[in-house]
Amino acid sequence: MNPPSAMPFQTVPPAPPVLWCQNLTKTYGAAPALDRFNIAVPAGRIVGLLGPNGSGKTTLLKMIAGVSHPTAGEVRVCGLPVSAESKALVSYLPERPYFSRSMRVREMIAYFNDFYADFDGAMAHDMLAHLGVDANAACSSLSKGTVEKVQLTLVMARHAALYLLDEPIGGVDPAARDYILSTIIRGYRPTSTVILSTHLVRDVEAVLDDFILLRYGTMMLHAPVAYVTQEKGTNLDAFFREEFRC
Ligand SMILES: Nc1ncnc2c1ncn2[C@@H]1O[C@H](COP(=O)(O)OP(=O)(O)OP(=O)(O)O)[C@@H](O)[C@H]1O
Question: Which of 26, 72, 184, 192 is 20 to 30 A distant from 173 in Cα terms?
């Protein structure tokens, strides 16, 4: 009897990065708002996108979300070029309010539930209860900070692979910030990747794994927070202030 032939050696190809950008560039006028930006971010990272006003943070997030087209370069989400398929994997919180002020909060939840297959309505109601938001309130009656809480809830209640959060805690009170950062962003989605743009470095640094520093549309640094705390012997907030001292 012939010996069984050896099984061919099979390797499982590594999963593509959740976010991959190559030479990503956006030019509005003469100077690029974002210039040849390169990155690969694997699953499970929480990344702070940091930089002074006008450094290109919103420009970058909009191109990843597919609401703005690059002048040059490429974005891939879980290996997919920007498309309806990639957008289904991305939950995006834009910097400005976008939802209908004429609806009630619970109607917004129902709307998201209908629109997104990955939306978790029970989770959304639970988050709102923790944040002290009345689901029966009319959106037009909400304060600015409460609107932000509702928007962030709608974004984080999706089971997305990639969350893009443009200034998610700028307008909310400090107690709610703690809940949003530690529970919603760190706790609910331990395996998802989050890119979070903010000026509130001191508030967010405890939940970040990595950070990106942008200046004039150019990436200055992409590193783990531990690079600052262990190798530089300081914290991210102090490091940022030193790098961008006016
Ligand atoms: N639609 C637009 N038309 C022209 N220029 C734009 C447009 N959007 C952004 N820019 C310019 O691109 C640059 C980057 O802007 P962007 O909003 O991405 O910066 P940012 O880092 O998010 O700033 P901030 O921290 O103030 O929110 C700025 O110089 C800005 O003026």
Answer: 192
